[in-house]
Amino acid sequence: METSKLIRTESYVNGQWVRAASGKTFDVTNPATGEVLASVTDMGREDTRKAIDAANAAWPAYRNLTAKERSALLRKWFNLILENRNELAKLMTLECGKVLNESLGEVTYGAGFVEWFAEEAKRTYGDVIPANSNDRRIVVIKQSIGVAAAITPWNFPLAMITRKVGPALAAGSPVVVKPPTETPLTALAISHLAELAGFPPGVYNTVTTSDNSEVGKELCENKKVRKLSFTGSTAVGKVLMSQSASTLKKLSLELGGNAAFIVFDDADIDEAVKGAMASKFRNSGQTCVCVNRLMVQDGIYDEFVEKFSKAVAALKVGNGLEEGAEIGPLINEKGLAKVKNHMDDALAKGGKVVVGGKALEGLYFEPTVLAEASQEMIISREEVFGPVAPVFRFKTEEEAIRIANDTDFGLASYFYSRDVGRCWRVAEALETGMVGINEGMISTEVAPFGGVKQSGIGREGSKYGMDYFMEIKYLCFGGLK
């Protein structure tokens, strides 16, 4: 750690590496071992205001760069991220616990957003609209929105930054990034790479803090911040939305999920098991699009549970840097306590453990299959955010859709069927922003990511992602007789 050229412990503001005015720091620990990895500067509200001021001062010159010039900067950043892929992945595994293969995948995935938006920077087209009279011409252009704040989660410490920062920088908007307390080192590492890529001072800023509420409040209430993008819990998203009301900020909120994974009786069961494994156990079950409710049609329920349980039992638990490790630790004691609470509630309400079911030493929890799950259980309503897979029964297509939609959340859903008609019916009926059809891994930079209901507002990634960092301006040319 100490010899890594990517390790930074100060915040990056206005092209400088700076400490908090208070001199405070906070420790970053490895959830696999409890080891302190580094002490990072602990910025406060006043420090954050300086970062916002720097970004706002940099905005006029940066937005006046040509799209091609901004694209070139992003392309340099993309190349640097890939050149440092191995070191970034190791750093990510150390601070968030995900297994190394997944960290390597995240670096590639996260870099993909930078590459995508480097290309999209040159495609922010407007329109010429047929006018309502012959002496007028109506033109629509898109312009940079201004300073964009990004509040990111610990479970994807690189990709959730690039998914927000990529379109902002492509659009001509300077950024202020607030990474989570658990995983600031990856955020600071890619800030260093952005510095090396040549972004002008003030265009890219990263503020590390343990005082998330106060720094978040500054990002919400400061009128110089024109855009806020947040990924995290629905409860926190509601607070940020309320705090942003005074400035009527443009918001993108990617919030909690409660993903259903439906297996119909005409499905390829082996493929459904593969899809469920990929979706449920990625990052030890700690992602917002992880399967939270496995729903299997009555006629194939026992066969699916048997095959799925066999695959789950074969998963190797261990430190993410260990050879062959597939399930790493949970992020902290609070996360472990939530999994235990969900398990206790499920068992008290008739759930049957087929595989796993117990906490291990440290922050580890056995990958678990919980049969005979019911809608009375907490786990049917709240994300477990851990390696526990409850399996519910259903009888008909209509019942499956009703149960899947019976939630306040609507981020992702999945189902397996070989009936083309059913595929269309169910895909259109599910109340989620994203649907995986015979597919358990749906995230990609080329597709829009986001949810409905209390899973959030807006879309990130894809061509649609640019629009949330731009303003549409209507120009009316008159007197053209």
TrEMBL record:
PROSITE patterns: ALDEHYDE_DEHYDR_CYS (PS00070), ALDEHYDE_DEHYDR_GLU (PS00687). Its EC number is 1.2.1.-. Pfam families: Aldedh. The active site is at E254. CDD domains: ALDH_F5_SSADH_GabD. Belongs to the aldehyde dehydrogenase family. This is NAD-dependent succinate-semialdehyde dehydrogenase. It comes from Imperialibacter roseus.
